[in-house]
Amino acid sequence: MSASRITFLQGQADQGAALARIADRVRTQLASPDLAALRTARRPLFTGIGASYAALAVPVQQLREAGVVTQRVLSSEIETGTAGFDTDCLIAVSQGGRSSETLAAFHQAAPGVTRAALLNVVPSPLGDLADLTVDLGNEPDSYASTIGYTGTLVALDLIAGVLAGREGDPWDSIAERTTAVHRQAAEVVAGLRGRGARCIASDGVAAGASRASAEEGALLLREVVRMTAAHCATRNYLHGEMESAGNTLHLVYGDVREIELARSLAGAGHLTLLITTADVDVAENLFTVRLPRTADAVRVVLETVVLQELVAQLSAERDVPIESFVFANDDTKEGGLDMSDFEVAAYTPAT
C-alpha cells in the first residue's frame, strides 16, 4: 500500500490542514495503551536515512535539553546491529516504510530493544517488522516530500514530548501559521529568485534543532533545483567552511550568531536569505523571512515551509520540472522503485 501522490505545489497548498490532522491523529495514538513501551523508553535511539534522518535533529535536540540520553544515527550505520549503542528503544523513521537501510537496521536490532516505527504509509514492510508503530495516516504526499516530511516533524515532536514528560504541545495553530509564513516566503523569495537561480551552489547554516532545516534544505535544492548544496553547523561554518563563498546562495537559520553571519556574507556581496525570529534591517544582498517566536519544532516546520517555496520558485526559474528525477536507484527501496511515482528525466543544467 502507498499514500496517493500529489504535486509539490499541491502539497504546499494542502500542508497546513494536513499538519493539523496529523497532530490530532498522533496525539490519539500516543495515548493508547499499545504504545506504553514507547512512552516509558529511557534511552531512545533514532534512525533514518535521507530526509528522515534530517528530521531527527529535532527530537534529539529537544530530548537532550530535557536530560534524556539520545542520539540519531544513519540507518546504514546500524545495518549490522545496535549492540554498540546503549539503547532500550530503536525509533526508526521511514515515510513509506520501504527504505532498505532502515529495514536492515530493524532486522539486526539487539534482543530486548523495542522497535518503534514512525511511518506515513500503513501497512508497510517496516511496520510489519516493528513492535509498535505511529503513523501519519497515509497522507497524500509529493515525490519530493512536502506534507510527509513536515508531518514527520510534527509526529517526532509529539513523541519527544511524551518521552520527556512534557505537558501539552505547540500544534494548535499550525494551519494558520503555515499559511501566513507561506505567504510571506512567496513575497521574499520572488525578490531573489532570478539571481538565486543563477547561483552555482548553496550553503545552509544552522544550529540546534534548525540543523534539520539546513540538512533538508540542501537535499531539496539538490533533488528539486539540481543545485549543488551543503549543510553546516553554525560554529563549524565559521571555522573555515565559509571561505569558499562565491556565486553561492546562503541560507542562514537562527537568531544569535547567525544574524551576524548573514550580515557578513551579504556585506561581502553574497546572496543571503536569513530565516529568523529577530527584526533585522534590510540590507543589500540580504533577504529576510521573519518567523513568529514559537517552540523549536514548530519553528523547524515553518523554516521548511520557506524552503519549499524557495525550491519551487528556483525550480521554475531554472525550468526544472519539480516532479522529475534523474537517477533511479533500485536498491534503496524494498521491492524496487514504483515507476508510476518516479519519472526519470533528462536534464540540461541552466546556463
What can you tell me about this protein's structure?
The structure is a single chain. The chain has 351 residues and is an alpha/beta fold. 42% of the residues lie in helices and 16% in strands. The chain has helices at residues 8-30, 36-39, 51-55, 57-65, 100-107, 125-129, 147-164, 174-190, 193-198, 211-225, 234-238, 257-267, 296-318, and strands spanning 44-48, 71-74, 89-93, 114-119, 132-135, 201-206, 228-233, 248-253, 271-276, 286-290, 324-325, 343-344. It has a 5-stranded parallel sheet, with helices on both faces. Strand 3 (89-93), helix 5 and strand 4 form a beta-alpha-beta unit. The chain is globular.
Query: How many helices in DSSP terms?
Result: 13
- Total beta-strand segments: 12
Instruction: Give the neighbour order of strands across the main sheet.
Output: 2-1-3-4-5
Task: Give the rounded overall mean pLDDT.
Answer: 92
Please compute the radius of gyration using only Cα atoms: 19 Å
How would you classify the helix and strand content by structural class? alpha/beta
